[in-house]
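Researcher: Let's do a round of design. I'm pasting the structure tokens now; please hold your answer until I've finished.
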């Protein structure tokens, strides 16, 4: 589908047929690749920066993070219990009694040796003493006093409840690979290796604007027919999940001069421009005209609901040496903005910034209700994921599903995604579910 754009240099196209969601995603991904290849040629070395670990959440790791040490650095106990030499274990249920010669604590190793018939009291994380290879959990033992412990010979096998040196991470091997969208566990992992700074991709600069004469900023009274601009706030929230730099271009009126000025500003400052509104029938010609001058943008009808009209393409760089600005013209309806962001924009932003995993995860649940659905378009219904009385995951829709009804989204915790060819869904049928948490 990039061909659609490729074959129409500087001439946006208005598709009459609807485009399958998957085709649109492919076209977007191809275009992002083109931009990446071009910026490789421009040698944008400054795209990487070194930042302290505590600021790295949701940034993208630019280089493999090699472990400078083995983790754990030495064999240690995985349980509170008694360390012994596995030679004394067997298949028999016989009870044996061992002499407890001391205690090993985490951070305070036991230096002595353990002889036959002896064992050592050991705490979780304490280094395994010389001569010991197994730990018997405390709860499997009996002891009349601190110096003696009895246990059945067959209760554990040799080597159990012991963490081996390097079993988590091996020195000089990649602990986290380049392209990871850094999560809390990654920051903890880097810290466990003693690493205080990470090499990450610079923050993408993403410009946002809302277009429409009817839109009013917060704080201003509403006159007849006007509404508050909510899309910029949903978009800001969505983008903040990705730790990006947001350039807020505000509300732009439906007139060519204002729109052109805003697009030009965004093209000179941002890697990506996301606008909402102004791409539906009746408004397209107007935006299309400007886009013809400023870049190469296609106006698409996408076979999806909500979010049917959408523009996508690139704006020419303000400087010849600059990078093209990726452009998304999202529909104006507040739910459609969030759905198209989820379906197209999020992955494109991650891909543009070198992430290796760009697709949000899907799960499945049982629909509590029948859902009407026409084949021939992908639908994103807002729903609540819960659990049925039998413990299985269930979903129920959140009220009226109109593209302008933001409450359906606010009350939901997931989308039910009904694929292109799917027809009606019966009550009790399994459906695809995409959780909002951490994404939307
Ligand atoms: P449009 O895509 O411009 O035709 O807009 C579709 C619907 O979304 C209309 O009802 C608009 O008033 C509404 N809309 C457009 N932009 C916004 C916005 N920024 N915030 C809230 N509603 C909007
Ligand atoms: Mg409009």
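Researcher: That's everything. Go ahead.
Model: Designed sequence:
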């Amino acid at each position: 589908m990039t061909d659609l754009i490729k074959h129409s240099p500087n001439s946006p196209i208005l598709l009459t047929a609807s485009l399958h969601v998957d085709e649109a995603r492919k076209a977007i991904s191809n275009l992002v690749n083109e931009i990446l290849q071009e910026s490789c040629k421009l040698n944008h070395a400054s795209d990487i920066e070194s930042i302290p670990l505590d600021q790295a959440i949701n940034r993208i790791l630019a280089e493999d993070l090699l472990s400078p040490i083995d983790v754990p650095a030495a064999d240690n106990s995985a349980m509170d219990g008694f360390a012994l030499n596995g030679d004394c274990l067997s298949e028999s249920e016989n009870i044996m009694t061992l002499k407890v010669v001391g205690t090993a604590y985490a951070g305070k190793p036991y230096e002595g040796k353990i002889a036959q018939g002896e064992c050592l009291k050991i705490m979780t994380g304490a280094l395994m003493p010389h001569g010991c290879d197994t730990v018997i959990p405390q709860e499997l033992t009996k002891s009349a006093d601190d110096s003696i412990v009895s246990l059945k010979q067959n209760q554990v096998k040799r080597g159990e409840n012991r963490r081996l040196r390097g079993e988590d991470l091996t020195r000089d091997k990649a602990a986290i690979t380049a392209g990871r969208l850094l999560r809390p566990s990654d920051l903890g992992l880097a810290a466990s290796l003693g690493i205080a700074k990470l090499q990450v991709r610079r923050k993408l600069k993403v410009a946002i604007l809302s277009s429409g004469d009817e839109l009013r900023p917060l704080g201003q009274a509403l006159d007849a027919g006007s509404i508050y601009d909510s899309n910029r706030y949903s978009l800001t929230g969505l983008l903040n999940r990705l730790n990006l730099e947001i350039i807020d271009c505000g509300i732009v009126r439906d007139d060519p001069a204002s729109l052109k000025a805003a697009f030009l500003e965004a093209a000179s400052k941002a890697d990506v421009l996301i606008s909402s509104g102004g791409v539906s029938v009746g408004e397209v010609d107007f935006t299309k005209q400007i886009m013809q001058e400023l870049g190469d943008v296609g106006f698409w009808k996408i076979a999806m609901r909500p979010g049917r009209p959408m523009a996508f393409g690139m704006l020419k760089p303000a400087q010849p040496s600059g990078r093209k600005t990726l452009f998304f013209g999202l529909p104006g309806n507040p739910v459609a903005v969030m759905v198209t962001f989820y379906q197209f924009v999020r992955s494109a932003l991650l891909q543009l910034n070198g992430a290796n995993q760009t697709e949000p995860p899907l799960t499945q649940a049982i629909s509590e209700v029948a859902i009407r659905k026409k084949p021939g378009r992908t639908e994103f219904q807002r729903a609540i994921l819960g659990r049925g009385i039998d413990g299985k995951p269930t979903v129920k829709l959140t009220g009226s599903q109109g593209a302008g009804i933001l409450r359906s989204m606010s009350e939901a915790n997931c989308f039910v995604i009904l694929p292109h060819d799917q027809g009606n869904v019966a009550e009790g049928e399994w459906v695809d579910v995409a959780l909002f948490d951490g994404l939307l």
